[in-house]
Amino acid sequence: MVGGHRVKIVARLRPPIPGELSDNGIRIITTDDGLPSICVNNPRDHSQVFKFPFSSCYGHDSRQEDIFEADVRPLIDVVYSGATATIFAYGVTSSGKTHTMQGSRAQPGVIPRAVEALFDHRRQMREYDVTLSASYMEIYRDEVYDLFVDRETAPKLPVRENDAGQVFVANLSLLPIEDISEFNKLYTSANKQRSVGSTLLNRESSRSHAILTLEVKLTQQDKVLTGRINLVDLAGSENNKLTGNDASRLQESAAINKSLSVLGQVVHALNQGASRIPYRNSKLTRILQDALGGSSVGVLICNLAPGLKFRQDTLNTLNFAVRTRNVENKPVVNEQDTRSAPKLHFSAVRQAPPKLAPLAMAPPTTRRPRASIAPRNAASGVTSAAGPSRVPRVSAAFHMAEAAPYPSIGKRRESGLGIIRERFNVAKKITDQDIDDKISKAVEAEVERRLKEKLEEMERQRTADEERTRQEAEIADTTRDQTFEIPQPSLPSGLLTPLLKRHQDLDNELRQRLQELEKKYERDKLDGDIVHKLSPKSRKKTGRAYVALARAHSEKGDLQVALDLYRKAESYVPDNMKLKERIIEIDLAVSHGTEFNPSPKRARTRRRPRRTTQARAAQSSLNIIPETSVPGDESHEEEAVMNLLGGESKDDPPKQGGRVTNITFGVELTNSPSKRGMGTEAYRNGEVRRTSPRKRARM
Ligand SMILES: Nc1ncnc2c1ncn2[C@@H]1O[C@H](COP(=O)(O)OP(=O)(O)OP(=O)(O)O)[C@@H](O)[C@H]1O
């Protein structure tokens, strides 16, 4: 064990991009104790400034190398010591995550610099035999794809867990890399496969989470140290009003927002010391399990976008960062004795799981076709089953070297499975078919074992519940028997009535208890999935119910309970920005012990009548962008949200008669000259957006 390690937070503010309006609403200052802080004006009350101190904060003029040298290079030593490090870039769409991680040819980001540093370091490790390998996956709409496999044929990869509880992506390629130029070729080609799309906020917006893993294997006699660095470029959270997403983008966006919302729930559960951490609620969190409360050294780079339109997202990101910095990991050194079976890691299949090693000795059995092998046969004319409908990157933002066509990479393009085959062939001189059989059998056995375990666990639970119920029934029976043993004729009339009534009550109680147990059993079974099993309407309804409950608690001053309930609501309506806003406010009020003043519940507003074509034409001739004209607009959603939260609006005047309120984000509250009134006119891409009549009426 290397020792407890908190996730390190690095904040980076990008410069305004051409055509984008900027203001001084987000700044970096250095506090008296020398810590840099991100300062953000409250978007709802410009007289408030929120401060978020982090160990590293980078302004719009920061250089790629500044971040790398200060916050990433130290991790290279960690990797060479045999531990795992994970760096993930988090932030709203277009905040600069891909720029920070990949960069461009002129400004290479964390990834190319890390690769260079890993190769540089290798030269110093003369006493070891060092090999470097890479795997690269993307999580697109909650499915995992191998970016080193042609995207037309890439199958969805399953996420599994080995006996040691390590999560891994089965059949993910782990390719050896000899030098930087070889990596560049692979990486450039793979990036072209990544799902990207154009939105109003980003011409090349990542529609998936991408995880590149670089693995270093240090061999010295019988010992093998395995260090890894996971470099994660998360897809950005999206406000569909700003992105102008169409229907297909909306689905992608929902998947992105959902997985990021689960990420937030995982961090929250870890902070609360919860017994159940909802890692399994999304593939992203399952795969990042090791980096969040696991055995990896973690660095979170929070990318922030300037400008008023991103202000709420910035606060969401910073709030997530504040919560994440409390997550503690327990890094371990991955050392193996080569005489024993190697361990498995989520990113690697080249290492056979412990169970696989002895299988090489077993006699060959009948071959079973494996779905994951199908794409490998694509070259020989065999097409795979329906592939993912992903959007290819039209032009990779990152071109470190001229892309080489895959065939030139030759053997190194072999999948992890292929590498296992190759190794076994050398060692035991057995056929591909034998190895496929053994691997299939091992995987099947593992799946069967897990299923059995799960069923046994459920059975144990049911038996325990039944036993309890039986005992309760016995008590009830005893009571009844005793009741009937009493010689009735000798009793005065009316004496039995209370006893019989009690018996009746017990029966009812027992029946009720049984029903509760059944419900609980069903609930437990559904727990992880329940949100996804509900229809959108039911999700909204449930979310609304939680919000009502949360609101009642917050009005009573029971903020912690209210916060938990709001978070519960968020798992049902993860896209609800208003709800996120409320969570941040209460979270900060709870963590700083300050007062929270819930706004009064507003009466439901009547829905505006649909605009006619003529009205729309008249509006467009005035060149005004009405709020409801944004493609993919969800004004009805917005209204539901307002109902959900009592009908507040971003344009609401500050509470408490315009005085500075005590809602403190971050650590400290300062006053700045009031800029109130700015919120009455919204700006988008330089065009003035007229405030809607509905909002004007409210102001
Ligand atoms: N620090 C920076 N300096 C200069 N340009 C930047 C910087 N950060 C981001 N940009 C530019 O901003 C735009 C958006 O950045 P990028 O694509 O990296 O955002 P993103 O967070 O990855 O977005 P998405 O989540 O939509 O993929 C790009 O044109 C990028 O070149």
TrEMBL record:
Basic residues composition-biased segments: 601-613
TPR repeats (start-end): 543-576
Residues annotated as domain Kinesin motor: 6-327
Extent of Polar residues compositional bias: 659-674
Descriptive protein name: Kinesin-like protein
Biased composition (Basic and acidic residues): 457-483
InterPro entries for the chain: Kinesin-like_fam, Kinesin_motor_CS, Kinesin_motor_dom, Kinesin_motor_dom_sf, P-loop_NTPase, TPR_rpt
Gene Ontology cellular component terms for the protein in this record: microtubule; microtubule associated complex
Coiled coil: 500-527
One Gene Ontology MF term: microtubule motor activity
Family: Belongs to the TRAFAC class myosin-kinesin ATPase superfamily. Kinesin family.
Region (Disordered) location: 358-388, 457-495, 593-699
Binding site for ATP: 91-98
